[in-house]
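Lab notebook, bench 4. The sequencing result for the construct came back, and we need a structural model before the next group meeting so we can plan mutations. Quick request posted to the team channel:

Model the 3D structure of this chain.
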Amino acid sequence: MTETPQKRYYRPDEVAAILRVSLATVYRRIEDGTLPAVQIGAVYRIPVSAVDSPSDFTLK
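Done. Here's the predicted structure in token form:
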């Protein structure tokens, strides 16, 4: 059997759905530094660990 690799990053739209906030809120928090993200070209990716332990940031 082969194991499915675990996801390490979320797209901003996935984070918005998980946290039940708007996509604009996710981008605002990335820009102000309260939501850690990696920028690859023009695309952002948010580490799963940042979403799994949201006590480190506030999206309100």
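DSSP finds three helices and three strands in the chain.
Will bring this to the meeting.
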